[in-house]
Amino acid sequence: MHCIAILAYAARPEAVRWASHAAIRLREEGVEVILDTVLASVLSEEIVSRCDVRPVTEFDTRADMVMTFGGDGTLLATTRVLMGSDVPIMGINVGKLGFLAEFPTSELDAAIIDVLKGNYRVVDRTTLEVHMNGATYYALNDVLIERSAEAKMTGVRAFVNDHHVADYRADGVIVCTPTGSTAYSLAAGGPIIAPSSQVICVTPIAPHTLTLRPLIVNDASEIRCTLMEGQREAHVVADGQILGTLSSRDSVIIRKSEHLVKLVKRADSTYYDLLREKLLWSADPTAR
Fold first, then answer.
1. 284 is catalytic
2. What are phi and psi for residue 278, nearest 5 degrees?
3. Residue 88: CB partners within 8 Å, gap ≥ 6?
4. Which one in 52, 57, 76, 167 has a CA-CA gap of 20 to 30 Å to 157?
């Protein structure tokens, strides 16, 4: 491991503090460190002088790995910039739950040593490709079609491979990858899907028809959504980023992307260990 790039949620002091700590430790170990321009602007001159400062868009051509300091949102923002790159991303959790940014700050020093010794694994995660209004976007977690601020609900007509599946009268519809199944979809009642599963999940948000339930389809499927008659517009959001407004004349097409996101994971843990830790699946509810 010759070069590691560091990116942090600069508006969060704790993220900046731990990113600074990582930069110092890596330089002590003889590793070249690249800082993104935003992070460099809030670090001390002493630390910045020992590192290379580059925009995030150059990370994939110069770094062997990228470390993000923040929460899952920081990691998702990084994947948007580096989409299509083979550089692995290691998320250090300075947020709350942290399904993607799963390394706690309490284990940062040990994690750095493990990385330098090659004691880690890299997993590939599926992403979604979104076609809307003549443009193409990407998402690691999910794509959301939600009601506009003026609407009481939205009406979305969904097709899978041009087969009419359902009319969703709801607060919105989520289309997610297995990685995104533990994000908004889970909060809306969707299932948890193992990341290795080759599927896409469609989850309605507070549907007005109680028989409408999450639907899992093969990830070779193409999902097309339009607005139902009488619906003027809806917002389309990918990984928390607003893409634009879907009008009654338009459609949004969602399919599996050819791009994979590479995430750094502990060598000695599995996805199920993560579920037990984050969701307290091994906790004893009778314990006092």
1. no
2. -80, -35
3. 65, 66, 122, 262, 263, 264
4. 76
Q: Is the pLDDT of residue 80 over 90?
A: yes
pLDDT of residue 151: 63
Please give the structure tokens belonging to residue 140: 């690691």
CATH number at residue 215: 2.60.200.30
d(CA 2, CA 116): 9
Average pLDDT of the chain to the nearest whole number: 94
Are 94 and 8 within one domain? yes
Q: What's the pLDDT tens digit per position in 200-247?
A: 999 999 999 989 999 999 999 999 999 998 788 899 999 999 999 998
Tokens 């996805």, residue? 271
Residue with tokens 């590479």: 262
Catalytic residue among 52, 60, 64, 72: 72
Q: How many structural domains is the chain composed of?
A: 2
CA max distance for the chain: 63
Question: What does DSSP say about strands 233-238 and 142-147: parallel, antiparallel, or unpaired?
Answer: antiparallel
Which pLDDT value is given to residue 95? 77
Note whether 253 and 131 are same-domain residues.
yes
Give helix 108-117 / helix 13-28 axis angle, nearest 10°. Answer: 40
Residue 273 belongs to some domain of the structure: no
Residues 69 and 133 reside in one and the same domain: no
112 & 198 share domain: no
